[in-house]
Request: fold
Amino acid sequence: MNKRYYPVIFHPEEVGYSVSVPDIDGCFSQGDDMNEAVAMVQDAMGLMLEDCGTLPTPSAPSVI
Reply:
């Protein structure tokens, strides 16, 4: 199995972080702290990619 690494963007909020995944349309999440935000976005990405017929191509982090 090939691994793909998708860059994510963490947005600090008043409490916690919101997270977006630019390469996966509609993939957003949030968490009360960085550890929770990472875990939640990993779950969201897994669910979004589970239903994809073709996986999106990851962008280079320097492009985002």
